[in-house]
Amino acid sequence: MRAACSAGLILAVVLWAAPARAAENEVSGSVAYFSESGSALTVTLGHYWNLAGVELGPRVGFAYLVNPNSAGVPLDVVARIGISALYIEGQAGLWLIFSRAPTARFHATGGAGLSLGFLRVGAEAGYLSSGALIGARISFAF
Questions:
Q1: Band of the pLDDT at 101, cuts 50, 70, 90?
Q2: Is residue 32 within 8 Å of 134, Cβ to Cβ?
């Protein structure tokens, strides 16, 4: 826990101290097969800063898991690298899933996709505490 607090403090200082660069917002939606319950759907809002060629920022929103029906709040930190029209990204954080135990679940995924101006389309795979995720994401930047 102490290491996580220290890492969070260092990240906050780096983001605060970095020179003002273009920031970008994005709304995204994803659908994934979740091995624990069938499927997971998310709608999220992200805000990113460009730090030395890596976009870094939080992504938060609403999650819905089926079988049994559960709602939740994904709280992730995302790192994305653009390579021409392609991108690769990784995200990690906690999802707060209501009406399931445990409520707080670790989440980490990696993905790749195509950047078409304000539109990004990609695929991702990863882990949500006690199950694998594999799916697709579409994002609109503004």
A1: confident
A2: yes
Element (H, E) at 132: strand 131-141
- Taking a C-beta distance cutoff of 8 angstroms, is the pair 53, 85 a contact? no
Domain 22-141 has CATH 3.40.50.920: no
Place of tokens 């994305």: 80
What's the predicted TM-score (pTM) here?
Answer: 0.80
Amino acid making up residue 79: A
- Asked which of 9-18, 97-106, 107-116, 130-139 is least confident by mean pLDDT, the reply is 9-18
Strands 104-116 and 86-97 come out as antiparallel
CB atoms within 10 A of CB 116: 9
Give the closest residue to 109 by CA, choosing from 59, 71, 64, 45. Answer: 59
